[in-house]
Recover the amino acids of this structure.
């Protein structure tokens, strides 16, 4: 089974930049999108091979939102986790043998004004959600954190020190949140198969960051221990454009 996750930074925008050709070429079984920035009725999607569409859009127009397009019909669909549900950040699909969850984790923001909320509430609530699912679990999406110094080009200028709190996405609190995911028995599929590789999934639009590969790896496919031995491939498709993020891929 092939799955793709992609923060598209606007589904309507990426549709004009080769999205349908990308889907046709990769032909995944399930596609998970984050930051769709649209409601279902605003988008004309020609995806006949994906009859099962699920959207969780933010109440605020042009903001956040996640979607899943699947060739396989799930048993059950759940929207949200009871926190920030108005921002459209989580969809959970239950299949016969596993759960699939896609998530768009809140950004802590430039001045870190959302960091405490994320650390004390969101990260804990989301982890509780995926831990409580009663089958093997795959979760994917933009987690808005680079876990280790291998996961971003410039760790020294972004990390927490004695004199500065660090930049959003690489503070100690956010990294601790990802530690907690691993401690709960989940596997970072990309790092599991590529323990030494430095490859990024997001680049700022400023300073020609993507051209210079000044990036961060903040998009993940994680699986729990029950699926660890089934991971065949985990990759970041850095040659696919259309967003400030690259799509990520998991084959199991």
């Amino acid at each position: 089974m092939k799955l793709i996750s992609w923060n598209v930074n606007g589904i309507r925008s990426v549709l004009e930049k080769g999205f349908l050709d990308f889907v046709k070429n990769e032909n995944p079984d399930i596609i998970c999108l984050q930051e769709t920035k649209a409601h279902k009725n605003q988008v004309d999607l020609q995806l006949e091979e994906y009859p099962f569409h699920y959207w969780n859009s933010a109440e605020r127009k042009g903001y956040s939102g996640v979607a899943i397009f699947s060739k396989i019909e799930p048993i059950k669909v759940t929207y949200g986790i009871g926190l920030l549900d108005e921002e459209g950040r989580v969809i959970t699909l239950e299949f016969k043998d596993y759960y699939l969850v896609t998530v768009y984790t809140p950004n802590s923001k430039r001045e870190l004004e959302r960091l405490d909320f994320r650390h004390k509430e969101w990260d804990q609530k989301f982890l509780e959600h995926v831990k409580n699912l009663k089958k093997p679990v795959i979760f994917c999406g933009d987690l808005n954190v680079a876990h280790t110094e291998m996961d971003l080009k410039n760790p020294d200028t972004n990390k927490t020190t004695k004199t500065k709190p660090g930049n959003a996405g690489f503070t100690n609190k956010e990294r601790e949140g990802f530690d907690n995911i691993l401690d709960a028995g989940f596997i970072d599929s990309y790092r599991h198969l590529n323990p030494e590789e430095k490859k990024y999934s997001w680049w700022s639009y400023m300073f020609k960051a993507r051209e210079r590969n000044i990036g961060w790896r903040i998009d993940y496919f994680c699986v729990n221990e029950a699926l660890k031995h089934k991971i065949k491939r985990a990759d970041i498709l850095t040659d696919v454009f259309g967003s400030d993020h690259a799509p990520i891929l998991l084959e199991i």
